[in-house]
Recover the amino acids of this structure.
C-alpha cells in the first residue's frame, strides 16, 4: 500500500521520467553502498599493514598484461589493492562529507530561523557575520580552521582527531547558504496567518519557530544539502590533496590522488586515475540528484 | 453580433486524465452590449475569457466548438494572425492592475507602443491619441502623468490606465476579467461607470467576467450564470436577478447578503461546486438541487427557454426528457 | 461592564527607509499612523461590525485587540476570559504541514491526549465537519471547509470574544452564506461576542448589531446597524453606502464619488476626509472633528447636513 503511494507521488513521477536522474541515483546508490559496506565486501583490507605483501606492489589493472584478478584495478606502491583503497577511501570521504553537511545544516538552519523570526539587531548581526564569511572562499576558511587546530593541538593530538576537525572546518565554511535560504523563507512564513494564529493562541516564540515555521522552510534545505554534500567531498579531497586533510595512513579519495600523483608520470597511472574517476562519478551523481530534486520540488515548474 | 461562441469546450489533459473546464457553452454579444459572465470559483468563467483570446496556459486547449469575431473564426488562427487581432480587435482588462502594466516602462510609452503596433499613426499622433485616451478614462493632468511609471499611481488610477491600454486600438470586443475586484468599493463604482460609458460610446461588445453579482447588476444588460463549466442560465440581467429560473441561480441570489434584508439567515446551498474531475452525470448541479427529479441524474439539459431567459434545467422542459 | 473597551488607541508604524539611506539622503523618519485615537466598547453577546475600505486600519485594530501589536497610545481593556481570532485567508491561516487534529488541538495542549482528541472531534462536528477530518491535511479541503477548521480551532480555545478579520471575504458567495449562517448559529448557541471586520457593507448589515465606520485610521461614525444603513450621518458613510452596487436595481441616482484615499504617509490636515467631502469648509481643513453622538463630523455638528 505504501509503495503504491510513494510510486504515485509527484516526486516519484518526476523521477521516473528523467533517465539521467535514474542513472545518477543508481550510481550514487552503488557508490554509497560500496563505501558503506567496504569493511565487509572489499577484496582486501588495505589498512592492515600485516596483510600487505610488497611483492604485490605496482601491479597494473587486471585487463592489462601483468595484472591479476585479485587486484582488479591494480595495486599501489605498498601492495594495496586499488579497488579496496577506493572503497575505503570513499567511505571516509562520504563520511566526512555527510557529517560536515549535517553540521552546516544544524548551524545554518538554526541561525536562519532565529534571524528571520526575531529580526532586528539579531538578524543584522547574524547576517553581517554571514556576509563577511562569504567573502572568503570555503577552502580558505577550512584551511584556516584546520591550521589553527594543528597549531593549537600539536602534531600528534591533531592526527587523532583530524576527521572531526575536518568536519568542523568544512562545516563552518558552508553554513551560510542554509542560513540565508531559511531566513528568507522564515520571514515569509512569519507573516502568514497560521503563525499569527499561533501567537494569538499564546504559543511561545521558540515553540512557533520549531513547530510551525521549521517544517515549512525545510524544503529548499534538502536540495542545498544534497549539493553541499558534493561540494564537501570535493573540499575534503582538495584539502587532502594539498596535504592538510586526511593523512595517508587512512586515506580518503583525495589523499589517494595525492599519493598516486607521484607515480602518474612514471607509468603507474592507475594509482591516481581510478580514485580520481571514482571521485568524479560520486560527486557528479550526487550533483545530478540534487539538480533533479531542486527542479522537482520547485512548485512553479510543476 | 460581434462575438459568437458556439459549443466551446476547453480541456486540460493531466496525467490523471482529461479535465473539462468548459463544457460546450454557447453565447453571443451584440455591439454596445455588456454581457456579464458570473460564477463562483471553478465555474470556468475566466477560462472562457482566456479561451476567446487564446491565452490559455498549456496544456489547456480548446477541444471543440467555434469562436467567431465579427463573423470570422478566430479559434483556429495561427499565432501570427492572433497577435494582430489581440489589441486591435480585442482588448483585455485583467484583475490585477499591478501586474498588467510593465513596471519598467512609463505609461505613456506603453500606450504609445500599443497604439503604434496596431494603428498606422506617427509617433506624434500616437502621443496625441494616448493623451486623449488618458483624459477619457479620467486621469487628471495627463500630460504631467505621461512620463510616470505604474508604481506612481494608485490602484484605481492604474486600472484606468489599463482600460486606456485596452481601448487604445479601438477594439470591437473588450474582455474584462474581474476588473474591479482588487479595488475599493468607492473606486469600483467609478471604474464600472467608466467601462459602461466607454463601451456604449464606441459600440464595442463587452464580456464582463466577475463573481460579483452587484457589479453585473450595475453594468450588464445580459448575464450568463456559469456552473461547473456550463451555462446554467442566461438572460436579461433584471430578470435573472429578480426572477431566476435555474435552481442554482435561485440559491445564488438567496445567498447574497443585501443591505436592508430583514431576515437573520441567508439561503444556503448545501455542498460545494464539484471538482473538475468529479462532475456528476446529467445536470452538474443535481446533487445539490432541492428540485431534482428523474431526468436530472441521467441527462444533461440544454439551455431551454424559461420566460425571458434560458435555463439549463429539466424543470423548463415542455416535452419530456428523452427516456433511455 | 462591556467585554471590550478601547480608549484613544493609536498605533504607529515606522516605515522609514533603512538607516544608511536616510543618512545619505538626509531623510527624516517616516511614521505611518495606522490607527488614530480609536475608542469604542463591545457589549457581551453583541456583534460589533467594523467597516471601511482597505488601509483604513480596521485589521490593525483587530491585531491590537488580540495582542499581535501593542498600542502606541491608549488602553485596551478586556474583561472576558479568553479571546480568539479568525483570519481572512483560508489558505494561509492553517499550517499546511499539520494535520487538522493538531491544528484544532493547538489551544488544547494542556489536556491529556485522549481528552484532546475527544474535544477536537466535538469542535469539528460543531462547525459542520466530521470527526474523521481530524486525520487529514488542510490542502485536502476547500476554502469554505478551511474556514470551518479555523473556526473550530478558535472555538477550542473556549473564547468569549471572537475577533473575525474578514472571515468570508475570500470565499465564494454561496460558501460565504454557509459560513455566516454557521457563525450566527454558534453565537446563539454559545453566547459568543463577535467583533466582525469587513469591507463588505452588505455582509456587515446582516451580522452586526452595531457598526463602526473607519476611514484613515479613525472611527468616523458608530451607530446601531439599523440606523447606519438607513440614516447614515457622516458624509463618508453616505458615500460608502452609495458606492455599494445596487443589486435591487432600483435605479437610485448616485452622488458622484470623488477622489481617492490619500497617501497615509501624507495625511490631510484636520478632518481626514475633507479633500473628498462635498460639505467640507474651512474648519474641516484645520480641525480634527471630535466624536459627538457617535459621529465625528463638523458639518453634522454644525447642523449643515
Amino acid at each position: 500500500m505504501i509503495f503504491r503511494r510513494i510510486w504515485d507521488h509527484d516526486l516519484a513521477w518526476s523521477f521516473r521520467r528523467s533517465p539521467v536522474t535514474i542513472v545518477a541515483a543508481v550510481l550514487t546508490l552503488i557508490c554509497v553502498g560500496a563505501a558503506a559496506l567496504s569493511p565487509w565486501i572489499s577484496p582486501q583490507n588495505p589498512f592492515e599493514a600485516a596483510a600487505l605483501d610488497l611483492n604485490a606492489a605496482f601491479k597494473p589493472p587486471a585487463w592489462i598484461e601483468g595484472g591479476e584478478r585479485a587486484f582488479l584495478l591494480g595495486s599501489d606502491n605498498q601492495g594495496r589493492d586499488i579497488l579496496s583503497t577506493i572503497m575505503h577511501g570513499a567511505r571516509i570521504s562520504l563520511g566526512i562529507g555527510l557529517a560536515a553537511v549535517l553540521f552546516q545544516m544544524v548551524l545554518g538552519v538554526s541561525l536562519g530561523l532565529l534571524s528571520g523570526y526575531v529580526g532586528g539587531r539579531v538578524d543584522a548581526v547574524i547576517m553581517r557575520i554571514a556576509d563577511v564569511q562569504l567573502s572568503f572562499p570555503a577552502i580558505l576558511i577550512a584551511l584556516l580552521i584546520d591550521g589553527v587546530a594543528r597549531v593549537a593541538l600539536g602534531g600528534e593530538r591533531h592526527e587523532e582527531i583530524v576527521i572531526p576537525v575536518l568536519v568542523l572546518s568544512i562545516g563552518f565554511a558552508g553554513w551560510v547558504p542554509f542560513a540565508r535560504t531559511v531566513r528568507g523563507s522564515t520571514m515569509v512564513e512569519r507573516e502568514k496567518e497560521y503563525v499569527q494564529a499561533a501567537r494569538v493562541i499564546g504559543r511561545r516564540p521558540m515553540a512557533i519557530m520549531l513547530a510551525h515555521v521549521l517544517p515549512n522552510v525545510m524544503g529548499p534545505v534538502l536540495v542545498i544539502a544534497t549539493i553541499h554534500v558534493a561540494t564537501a567531498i570535493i573540499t575534503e579531497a582538495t584539502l587532502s590533496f594539498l596535504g592538510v586533510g586526511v593523512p595517508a595512513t587512512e586515506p580518503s579519495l583525495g589523499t589517494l590522488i595525492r599519493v598516486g600523483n607521484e607515480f602518474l608520470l612514471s607509468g603507474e597511472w592507475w594509482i591516481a586515475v581510478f580514485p580520481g574517476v571514482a571521485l568524479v562519478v560520486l560527486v557528479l551523481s550526487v550533483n545530478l540528484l540534487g539538480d533533479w530534486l531542486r527542479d522537482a520540488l520547485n512548485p512553479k515548474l510543476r | 453580433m460581434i462575438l459568437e461562441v458556439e459549443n466551446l469546450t476547453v480541456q486540460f489533459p493531466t496525467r490523471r486524465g482529461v479535465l473539462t473546464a468548459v463544457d460546450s457553452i454557447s453565447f453571443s454579444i451584440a455591439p454596445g452590449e455588456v454581457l456579464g459572465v458570473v460564477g463562483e470559483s471553478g465555474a470556468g468563467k475566466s477560462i472562457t475569457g482566456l479561451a476567446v483570446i487564446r491565452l490559455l496556459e498549456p496544456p489547456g486547449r480548446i477541444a471543440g466548438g467555434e469562436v467567431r469575431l465579427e463573423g470570422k473564426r478566430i479559434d483556429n488562427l495561427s499565432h501570427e494572425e492572433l497577435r494582430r487581432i489581440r489589441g486591435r480587435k480585442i482588448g483585455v482588462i485583467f484583475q490585477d492592475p499591478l501586474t498588467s502594466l510593465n513596471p519598467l516602462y512609463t505609461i505613456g510609452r506603453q500606450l504609445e507602443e500599443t497604439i503604434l503596433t496596431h494603428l498606422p499613426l506617427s509617433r506624434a499622433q500616437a502621443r496625441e491619441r494616448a493623451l486623449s485616451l488618458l483624459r477619457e478614462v479620467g486621469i487628471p493632468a495627463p500630460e504631467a502623468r505621461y512620463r510616470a511609471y505604474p508604481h506612481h499611481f494608485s490602484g484605481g488610477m492604474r486600472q484606468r490606465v489599463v482600460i486606456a491600454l485596452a481601448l487604445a486600438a479601438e477594439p470591437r470586443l473588450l474582455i474584462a476579467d474581474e476588473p474591479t475586484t482588487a479595488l475599493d468599493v468607492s473606486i469600483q463604482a467609478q471604474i464600472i461607470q467608466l467601462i459602461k460609458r466607454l463601451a456604449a460610446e464606441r459600440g464595442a461588445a463587452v464580456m464582463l467576467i466577475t463573481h460579483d453579482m452587484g457589479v453585473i447588476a450595475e453594468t450588464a444588460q445580459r448575464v450568463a450564470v456559469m456552473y461547473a463549466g456550463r451555462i446554467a442560465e442566461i438572460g436579461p440581467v433584471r430578470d435573472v436577478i429578480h426572477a431566476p429560473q435555474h435552481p442554482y441561480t435561485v440559491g445564488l441570489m438567496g445567498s447574497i447578503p443585501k443591505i436592508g434584508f430583514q431576515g437573520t439567515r441567508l439561503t444556503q446551498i448545501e455542498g460545494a461546486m464539484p471538482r473538475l474531475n468529479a462532475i456528476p452525470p446529467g445536470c452538474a448541479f443535481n446533487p445539490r438541487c432541492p428540485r431534482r427529479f428523474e431526468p436530472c441524474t441521467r441527462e444533461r439539459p440544454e439551455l431551454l427557454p424559461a420566460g425571458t431567459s434560458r435555463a439549463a434545467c429539466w424543470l423548463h422542459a415542455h416535452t419530456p426528457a428523452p427516456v433511455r | 461592564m462591556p467585554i471590550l473597551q478601547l480608549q484613544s488607541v493609536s498605533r504607529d508604524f515606522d516605515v522609514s527607509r533603512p538607516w544608511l539611506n536616510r543618512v545619505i539622503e538626509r531623510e527624516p523618519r517616516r511614521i505611518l499612523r495606522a490607527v488614530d485615537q480609536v475608542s469604542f466598547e463591545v457589549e457581551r453577546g453583541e456583534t460589533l461590525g467594523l467597516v471601511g475600505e482597505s488601509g483604513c486600519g480596521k485589521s490593525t485594530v483587530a491585531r491590537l485587540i488580540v495582542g499581535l501589536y501593542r498600542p502606541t497610545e491608549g488602553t485596551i481593556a478586556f474583561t472576558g476570559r479568553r479571546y480568539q481570532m479568525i483570519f481572512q485567508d483560508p489558505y494561509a491561516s492553517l499550517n499546511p504541514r499539520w494535520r487538522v487534529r493538531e491544528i484544532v488541538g493547538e489551544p488544547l495542549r494542556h489536556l491529556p491526549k485522549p481528552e484532546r482528541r475527544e474535544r477536537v472531534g466535538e469542535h469539528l462536528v460543531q462547525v459542520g465537519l466530521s470527526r474523521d477530518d481530524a486525520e487529514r491535511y488542510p490542502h485536502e479541503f476547500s476554502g469554505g471547509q478551511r474556514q470551518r477548521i479555523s473556526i473550530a480551532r478558535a472555538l477550542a480555545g473556549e473564547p468569549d470574544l471572537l475577533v473575525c478579520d474578514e472571515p468570508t471575504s475570500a470565499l465564494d458567495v454561496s460558501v460565504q452564506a454557509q459560513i455566516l449562517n454557521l457563525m450566527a448559529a454558534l453565537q446563539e448557541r454559545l453566547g459568543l461576542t463577535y467583533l466582525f471586520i469587513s469591507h463588505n457593507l452588505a455582509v456587515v448589515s446582516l451580522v452586526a448589531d452595531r457598526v463602526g465606520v473607519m476611514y484613515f485610521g479613525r472611527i468616523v461614525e458608530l451607530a446601531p446597524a439599523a440606523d447606519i444603513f438607513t440614516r447614515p450621518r457622516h458624509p463618508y458613510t453616505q458615500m460608502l453606502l452609495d458606492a455599494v452596487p445596487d443589486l435591487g436595481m432600483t435605479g437610485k441616482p448616485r452622488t458622484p464619488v470623488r477622489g481617492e484615499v490619500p497617501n497615509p504617509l501624507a495625511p490631510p490636515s484636520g478632518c481626514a476626509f475633507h479633500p473628498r467631502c462635498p460639505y467640507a469648509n474651512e474648519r474641516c481643513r484645520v480641525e480634527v472633528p471630535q466624536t459627538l453622538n457617535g459621529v465625528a463630523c463638523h458639518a453634522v455638528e454644525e447642523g449643515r447636513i
Observations:
- Chain A has 13 helices and no strands.
- Chain A touches chain B through one residue (CB under 8 Å).
- The domain at 2-47+63-301 of chain A is CATH 1.10.3720.10 (MetI-like fold).
